[in-house]
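Figure S7 source data.
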Amino acid sequence: MTYDSVVPEELGEPALRVTAVPEPGAVTIVVPTFNESANIRELLRGITESVPARLPCEVVFVDDSTDDTPEVIREAARDCPYPVTVLHRESPVGGLGGAVVEGMRAATSDWIVVMDGDLQHPPSLVPELVDAGERTHAGLVVASRYIRGGSRAGLAGGYRVAVSRGATWLTKTLFPRRLRGISDPMSGFFAIRRSAVTTDVLKPLGYKILLETAVRARPRRVTEVPFVFRPRFAGESKSTAREGVRFLRHLAGLRTASPVARMVVFGLIGATGFLPNLAALWALTAAGMHYLPAEIAANQLGVAWNFLLIEHLCFPGRRQYRRWWDRAGRFALLANADLVVRIPLIALLVSRFGMSVLGATALALVTTFVLRFVGTEALVYLPRKGGRAGDTTAVETGRHVGSRTARRSS
Ligand code: GDD
Ligand code: MN
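Tokens for the predicted manganese (II) ion complex:
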């Protein structure tokens, strides 16, 4: 791809080409779109105004629209002094995040800037993001609403503000190390060096593609630039309550990506099982049941509670290999085996190895816990040999379907 026809003759002002930084390289602007036809012209106008004079650019739209957005883009592209591409996807795999990854794969420039198509992200900031990256030798530059000079003025309503703040807090709490230096992990506006992009490790799920990138493929150096999040130019937000649930699943998936983290979450969930267990025991004995059968019944409630939480928080992306009753049955079997194995194990440790009762109990608890975790991983949530019919793990990684049409004009 060549850019030489872009500058400087058409602009008539060669001085504009000289930026404060050494040769900033070119930028591919990736814009995910879902029914944004009323915003396209204004967006491309904004980009034309502020980008090509400062650095060579191309724009890649990754579109999942059901309206005429792709046609509007092709039409508007005729007036653009840079290449404009539309990747229209027939199946919107991975949603917004999946679209962005698709666009990153198609990018050819040194830098990739990801921004929304509704003008909530000011196009005038694109060169600044790249400049900041070049100046500080960063691999990732985040446009942040939460540093001095930035604002979330365009966040519609108190409800959205509260949700956004809560999500930011939760996310920063869950990933204190990975997100150090990133004040706005929820931002959808950032620049990343193409050499720092490793799309293979990304498993985008919904809106938070910056979070996905920062956690799974964090570039070594990260810097931030403030920006004012503006109101939408036209149309409505595509974010829904369902997207919120998807976000929580995304967080759980990221947090439990490593086996050690999974084991910690598994243990924490196990500890919370005391609550329903004791509550049921109390209710059943109060209703007149003998305490021994009540113990057994209450324990099953604790198992069910643990199963539900573990399904959603520990193995959110690994439920597809077995049917739910198969998983529940195996899980219950392991949980009950745990009780059956522990007592003889304690007896063995005390009588054979002369351990103290307390020490033996602690060791047995840890041992059966680890065994139960490993068993749950291997027997409940690992892909089966041969696999269940219709199984696929590729569902959330995204694969481009559809046409790629490049248009360039002038
Ligand atoms: N291709 C594609 N597929 N694009 C999508 C999809 C999808 O399924 N869903 C949304 N988009 C596009 C929209 O067309 C828009 O260009 C951009 O993604 C952002 O969508 P909005 O619907 O405008 O989202 P928002 O304003 O609520 O959320 C924005 O702000 C958040 C921070 O408050 C996004 O930038 C989020 O990424 C950001 O976290
Ligand atoms: Mn928006």
